[in-house]
Design goal:
There is one protein chain. The chain is an all-alpha fold. Helix content is about 60%, strand content about 0%. It has 13 helices and no strands.
């Protein structure tokens, strides 16, 4: 995969961090960064939270009202993780936290048929021309998971949700990707509760 420029661009330019790409491939971050540079793909700063705009809560509040974290990261030339951390630091909630929900998934029967044929997240994503994250979330919604073993136990995730942790805070606490958090929320039947809690928090504010 590190020799496939198209694959690298698709993963990295949809605002994945180097760490997330490395985790998916099961390698450390250094060869991923080297592969990006070798193929002329500009590496965004993983220290994006140091960007002047990301220490300006008023600017962040205005920007997130009209843009998702992906768009802000691309505009500033930083990582999506850097944007998410800045939002968390200032207690600013993103109205687009569940971005994959904006796409209409295929019917369950069609999705299951494609999964049976492909058997990989990447294969499903390519069939529907969506990102692997969107494909993974769609599959989780119909209880189809790549791994039968949860990345987080039901008790741990329930406690995190009941404490009001955001998706980014759950990522950081358990050292997993945002995609994995959403998949595990679906696996454990906690997605709606988590979303409702944060929708309510935004309404109250």
């Amino acid at each position: 995969m590190l020799d496939d420029r198209g694959w690298l661009i698709e993963r990295y330019e949809t605002a994945w961090s180097i760490r997330e790409v490395a985790t998916e491939l099961g390698v450390n971050e250094q060869p991923v960064g080297a592969a990006l540079r070798r193929r002329g793909i500009i590496v965004r700063s993983e220290r994006g939270s140091q960007h002047p705009r990301l220490v300006d809560p008023a600017w962040l509040q205005a920007a997130i009202a009209d843009n998702g974290t992906n768009e802000i990261a691309q505009q500033l030339g930083v990582s999506r993780v850097g944007v998410q951390r800045a939002l968390t630091r200032y207690g600013i909630a993103s109205p687009r936290r569940y971005e994959s929900a904006s796409l209409t998934p295929p019917s369950e029967a069609v999705l299951r048929a494609v999964w049976d044929a492909e058997q990989t997240i990447r294969g499903v994503a390519q069939r529907f021309s969506v990102s692997p994250t969107t494909a993974a979330v769609w599959l989780a919604q119909i209880a189809v998971f790549v791994s039968e073993r949860p990345a987080i136990s039901h008790r741990e995730l329930t406690n995190a949700v009941r404490k009001g942790l955001t998706r980014v805070e759950i990522e950081q606490r358990f050292k997993i990707t945002g995609r994995t958090v959403v998949v595990e929320l679906h696996r454990h039947g906690l997605f709606r509760e988590h979303r409702q809690r944060h929708v309510s928090q935004r309404s109250d504010s």
